[in-house]
Amino acid sequence: MSQPVHALFLVSAPDQPGLVARLASFFYAGGLNIIDASNHTDIHAEGGARFFMRLVVDLAGLSTPAASKALRGSATRGALETAFGELSASISADWSVRYTDVVQRVAILVTKDPACLYDLVLRQRAGELNCEIPLIISNHPTLEPVAESFRIPFVCLPVTPETKQDQERRLLELAAQHHVDLVVLARYMQILTAGFLEAAPPVINIHHGFLPAFQGAKPYHQAHARGVKLIGATAHYATQDLDQGPIIEQDVARVTHALGPEELTRVGRDVERVVLSRAVRAHLERRVIVAGRRTIVL
Amino acid sequence: MSQPVHALFLVSAPDQPGLVARLASFFYAGGLNIIDASNHTDIHAEGGARFFMRLVVDLAGLSTPAASKALRGSATRGALETAFGELSASISADWSVRYTDVVQRVAILVTKDPACLYDLVLRQRAGELNCEIPLIISNHPTLEPVAESFRIPFVCLPVTPETKQDQERRLLELAAQHHVDLVVLARYMQILTAGFLEAAPPVINIHHGFLPAFQGAKPYHQAHARGVKLIGATAHYATQDLDQGPIIEQDVARVTHALGPEELTRVGRDVERVVLSRAVRAHLERRVIVAGRRTIVL
Amino acid sequence: MSQPVHALFLVSAPDQPGLVARLASFFYAGGLNIIDASNHTDIHAEGGARFFMRLVVDLAGLSTPAASKALRGSATRGALETAFGELSASISADWSVRYTDVVQRVAILVTKDPACLYDLVLRQRAGELNCEIPLIISNHPTLEPVAESFRIPFVCLPVTPETKQDQERRLLELAAQHHVDLVVLARYMQILTAGFLEAAPPVINIHHGFLPAFQGAKPYHQAHARGVKLIGATAHYATQDLDQGPIIEQDVARVTHALGPEELTRVGRDVERVVLSRAVRAHLERRVIVAGRRTIVL
Amino acid sequence: MSQPVHALFLVSAPDQPGLVARLASFFYAGGLNIIDASNHTDIHAEGGARFFMRLVVDLAGLSTPAASKALRGSATRGALETAFGELSASISADWSVRYTDVVQRVAILVTKDPACLYDLVLRQRAGELNCEIPLIISNHPTLEPVAESFRIPFVCLPVTPETKQDQERRLLELAAQHHVDLVVLARYMQILTAGFLEAAPPVINIHHGFLPAFQGAKPYHQAHARGVKLIGATAHYATQDLDQGPIIEQDVARVTHALGPEELTRVGRDVERVVLSRAVRAHLERRVIVAGRRTIVL
Q: Complex ipTM, two decimals?
């Protein structure tokens, strides 16, 4: 028996009475069962209270007469999206949908550190991350054998100040060619330009520091010099403002004075990979809505 | 300006399509805005998948024509409850409601340890726990000065094997007389009988162990003997089966071989009071539904 | 039977071979048993590797012939200190000692928030903090009833820009008069001047942020605006550089997008008081050595 | 330049005055610098207070005249061990030593789950675990490709009730033949017999539950049924009493009612591998002393 297929809707709109009822009724009227729903109203949002909702809808109902009737005879995904778009327009909502039988394609960018790369690939293989990994890209050849051991194509794009622009163009071509939906910077030690970020699919980065502390380079050395008692890692969407993008997930580990910068790096590596994989998973499950500088994780 | 008044609905029903839509539409039709909603379907429940929902509804809408019309001219809390009861019956739901302007009354039972008592009272005073504490009951006089310093009535009911039955009867009388909605065992070192638990309001207990490990007496001594590296505490509804009631909240703290049983007790005390106050808060905010041996915390 | 009396020695010296042996042998030769010892060598210290050691010594041995002989006939605390001072000089060490039967005296400074104050006093009463609290000082009268309920003298010193200098002088007089060994800023909302900090006993402050992130005012509002997923608190020695003093202890709590600034404040308050009390305890047990901008906690 | 070579001594003895001084002086007299030392006295031990110490000694001193003189002309590791053995005998101590230039050899036993296996191998490759992994043994062929991708010999020893005894004998032969110092059960789904455990090198097991809760099979299903709010994992030395061996390390992760048994398994897997690798690391660094049912981790 095949897995049931779900549609994952994310909605964000100016708050007003009745939003939950209108959204829920839309699917109910169409015979589509809501498997899971969660919502949040941010009363502190700039420009007034804002409503956020995530809906997981069972598409089995699409083949019923109710759906056919509600969608004016054409019970297709396209018709569903058209109808939902009309509802959304009437409440000034931003929205998106994806379907669980359309597997997301994730490109992983790395440099030399294999920890996060292994972690992501192993979770994908274990079924924890519902995605495909069509290619791994690096500015160094170091991790090619890792990619090979998993039979994932590996592209090496060495970057120098002179070649940076060309390589970013090449990156975009590869992303387009492989139908990449998400780029994950799994310890990719290059700063991406604003131009690239504008043109690329969403990009998730792992920062090896507890942002907003320790922005910039060598956060573990900064942490050691400052004598902190916890170190952390932060997964965030990459934006033009370095280390300032909306935070998706963070975590920390306890450390003591006895650990030098190298040992902080080792402890931190464990935090990084757990934080990054949680963030990627939340993104793939369409749980994350960006709201200004913050994220809503439903 | 006064605080808006909310109704907190908790619903539990056999799962079926359209439940979110029907519940949301009920309020929408009555002009009542849903401030916050969350739901969960437990597909592992005994007897088939079960649906749980918490709805926070703004009662301001009760004074609008829409409510009046939907509730057949009588836009009162009673009429709302009657109408919601009819809807619930049609979906075989269990449900309850409470209103944020009806403050819950909590009796705290203690023995000699003041830590959890202080914690609860201070949080209530700081506005973190929306409740009144009309009385503190103890089987020892030790904590009377604490009660006094907060001007809370203190009743001492010493318990011996011979007086146990009488004192439990007295406890029930006091609970009734003070309109107690919740009893909190804040390190009350007496086992309550099944008869008492049946007749009493809900009872929350803090167990100083990470249940189901270390049931019974002296959990920190057990934990020390076993050499565990973490100790914990568990807040649960008291049931006839000692230390087996549905768990509401748990947490742990890291310990080492260097700590003896007394020091484990000290570390544990910090965990206990945080865990107990979180559980009481969740209960007061109507976030907890008991489902068999488990709780759903929405 | 009385408690055994211990001397707590803290030593810091340039690293060289044989330091543990020389320090341990000093006490052994004098018939003084080392109950507990821990040491750390910081190879990253500025100016070369530095050795840190904490020794807990049972003073019962002071009354034995061995001590008398080793200390040249005068087996007193003074003679012990003189002899240890000579040893320390020979290894260029900084050192300090305190005795467990000389109870430390702690002044608590507060403004309006009672959470940390209650926490410290209750732990002191429960025997968790081995100290006396001879007075509570505040720039507001709000918490006088709390001080009174514990029968602790309360002094109100309102501060305005004009009176700041005078009030700090008054603070120093009170500290001297009450033989205060440690000043704890338990949410004291005034910045202390460099002059005060130089003249005063050690000062421990609780910062309601995960330093070095969120320095300065309203850290929870900053944290909310930035959308962090963890909030924290930091206990540190107060120095002239605001929020830059050596960190003694830190911890965090997990938060979500759903919490507004007020709720972050509530969650943070729990972290603050636990972190502050751990730092005060570590200081009282002579576990903390300041080493530049960092602390060694043995 | 080569790494300095250290000797790691572990000592356990009945407590008495002067132990730290005598042990430290032994090395000092021989010109051997103590790099790191930590000790603990367990006053709750059965049979009276017991002293535990770990000493890290720089062997560079072995080539100095002081060592030669102290060790009676023969400044070898053997002579050092003989002399230390004499000291230990005089204080009735148990002791062991290992040298950092003698790399420990670890055999990993697995069944089908690759998570812990990958974790251990990747950490060993990253230099986090100072050991060699000469072979991987499994009762199933599933993970052979993983072993192969790291070029580690893989031996498949399928186990049935009839072959169990023979396969355990084969396991012991392989351990002897490969000079295995430590066996790690990285989700090896077979119970080892008392006979095997007696004859084998030390065995560390990862239990996917927060022992002593959830002993036995299917701990995540037990945890789900009981509705716990945290799940954990425990690394312990395997002993004849199943799931009762001395605990080396534990940790937990927060879960909610929303997670089914499969999702608890996924969350738990992350805890398991971190806990197991910390325990293996502590063992390899000779930080763990077994004391009855407990461990001292120095």
A: 0.87
